[in-house]
Amino acid sequence: MAEDEIADLREQLAEAHAESERLQIAAADSEARAVHLEELNQRLRGQIEVAEGELATARQRLDESGAQVAAFQEEITTKQEENESLHARLQAAAGKYREALLAAAPELPEELVTGGSIEEVEEAVERARATVRQVRERLESRAQVGRVPTGSPPRGAPDYSALSPIEKIRLGLSQKRS
């Protein structure tokens, strides 16, 4: 029995030894995995720090861009106000120019001279002048048609070309008698 017990003990020892080796391999494997995971964790932490730095830089740029946008919006508002002021002044100047043109040319109807700018007023004045010129020409041509000359018509020799030969002879005889 002692030998059986020794064989059993040896077998148990071999199993314990095999189990110990397996546990050592598992522990080494776990330790290697832990080292790998720790390295991976360190790399990820580094990437997170880089990403946080980039995020902070991006936020700073965004804040700067927001400030620039606000400045541009303020400038746009200022330019729009200037534009509105200049537009109002242009309309006032065009109105005064229109009044001056109408005062210098009283023959032009006020209704025909319109415009919001000096160029538009000038174009309207040219159209009004053309209209007035056309109306005058028509009125003058109509007046010429209905015009009767004053005084007696101009004297000249009578035209006998339309008379027949017999009438011409009679006329000649009658003029000889008188």
Write the layout of secondary structure elements.
Layout lengths: L1 H103 L13 H29 L18 H13 L1
Class by SSE composition? mainly alpha
Summarize the helix and strand pattern as letters: HHH
What value does the Rg take, in angstroms?
59 Å
What oligomeric state do the depicted chains represent? Answer: single chain
Average pLDDT taken over every residue: 88
DSSP helical segment count: 3
Count of extended strands: 0
Largest sheet: none
Shape: rod-shaped
Portion of residues within helices: over 70%
Strand content: under 5%
Low-confidence stretches: none
Distance between the amino and carboxyl termini: 202 Å
Overall description:
By secondary structure, the chain is mostly helical. Helices cover 81% and strands 0% of the residues. The protein contains three helices and no strands. It has helices at 2-104, 118-146, 165-177. α1 runs parallel beside α2 (118-146). The longest helix has 103 residues, at 2-104. It is rod-shaped and about 205 Å long. The mean pLDDT is 88.
